[in-house]
Amino acid sequence: MSARLRIAALAVAATAALALAACSSGGSDAGSGAAKSGADAGYITAGKLTVATSEPAYAPWVIDDKPESGDGFEAAVAYAVADKLGFAKSDVVWVRDDFDKSIAPGPKDFDINLQQFSITDERKKAVDFSSPYYETSQVVITTGKSKAADATSLADLKGLLIGAMTGTTSYTDAVKDIAPKHEVQAFNSNDDAVTALKAGQVDAIVVDLPTGFYVTGAELDDGKIVGQLPSVAGDTGDRFGIVLAKGSPLTGKVSDAVDALKADGTLASLEAKWLNSQGNAPLLK
């Protein structure tokens, strides 16, 4: 082959190689860009917001165990957050998750989770929390026939059988504030605690304030709120936050959404609608 032909062949080969490299580079960048965009979004399913709640979910947080209806405080908050994040109501997907599993370390099958999770430093080691969307206190509730019915102080409760849902601030505050002589009875859910109260297995139970108003008004024929525990009453309150996977890229966005809902009055409006706090809940001392 002549020198001229060799030079021409090399030029053609070089041009082809450059073209192939350009095509390969362009395809790779496009692919990695799409993947990077999906990863940055951080959602379980592209174009959807996956929201978890309990199984079952109770009023006033979710009405009739139907979060998709948007009825109930947390169901309504979830849709309001979704709207701030740019999701239509039809793009919100509901899943169910166990309370303890939701705040345990490890991967999650949800983007956000609302189950009246109190924000604590211990839980922050395993999951992320949004800005608080609700702040409340813990209350002692009982029935008119119970030994706790006439209690007016923490001292009056110390010799009684007290119950609360395990793994909750209600349980922790019952132990700390009441410090009963008998071990605080632990229940898997507030529903189980209420059943035990009805059956006389405990004299009183501790729940958050909105749940206390609902249970005494709708689930107990002779329900009574004994009073608020002092741990958070008049202090910072027991703050509920939306749970996300540890290190979730969505945490900042969800917190911004909650902050915006607080600033524009939406949270206050939803609280007034779904968490009507009418009633008497004196501070126990």
List keywords for this structure.
single chain, 285 residues, alpha/beta, D-Maltodextrin-Binding Protein, domain 2, 3 domains, five-stranded mixed sheet, three-stranded parallel sheet, 10 helices, 10 strands, 41% helix, 19% strand, elongated
In short:
This protein is of the alpha/beta class. The protein has helices at residues 3-41, 73-84, 99-102, 121-124, 154-157, 169-178, 190-199, 209-219, 251-263, 266-274, and strands at residues 49-53, 92-96, 112-113, 127-136, 138-143, 162-165, 185-187, 204-208, 223-228, 238-245.
Characterise the protein shown here:
- The structure is a single chain.
- By secondary structure, the protein is α/β, with parallel strands linked by helices.
- It has 3 domains: 1-41; 49-135 and 239-274, Periplasmic binding protein-like II (D-Maltodextrin-Binding Protein, domain 2); 138-228, Periplasmic binding protein-like II (D-Maltodextrin-Binding Protein, domain 2), CATH 3.40.190.10.
- Helix content is 41%, strand content 19%.
- The protein has a 5-stranded mixed sheet.
- Strand 6, helix 6 (169-178) and strand 7 (185-187) form a beta-alpha-beta unit.
- Helix 2 crosses helix 9 (251-263) and helix 2 packs antiparallel against helix 10 (266-274).
- It is elongated.
- Residues 1-39 have low confidence and may be disordered.
